[in-house]
Amino acid sequence: MKVAVAGCCHGALDKMYETLELLQRRHNVWPDLLLCCGDFQAVRNEADLRCMAVPAKYRHMQTFYRYYSGEKKAPVLTVFIGGNHEASNHLQELPYGGWVAPNIYYLGYAGVVRFRGVRIGGISGIFKSHDYRKGHFECPPYNQQTIRSAYHVRNIEVFKLKQLKRPIDIFMSHDWPRSIYHYGNKKQLLKMKSFFRQEVESNTLGSPAASELLQHLKPTYWFSAHLHVKFAAFMQHETNTKEELPKATKFLALDKCLPHRDFLQIIDVEHDPNAGDSLEYDAEWIAILKATNCLVNVTPSSWNMPEKNGLHAKWDYSVTEEAIKEVLEELNHDLKIPCNFTLTAACYDPSKPQKNMEPVHTINPQTTEFCAQFGLTDINDRIQQAKEEGSGRGECEEEEEEEMDSAGSAEEPSEYNTDNSGLSSFNPDEIMLDEEGGDEDLSTCSVDPSPDHPPEFSTSFSDIRIMPDSMAVSSDDATDSNNEELDKSGGSKQGEERSPTERSLKRIGGDENGNSGVKKIKRRNQAIYAAEDEDKTD
Question: Quick check: is 383 in a domain?
Answer without folding.
Answer: yes
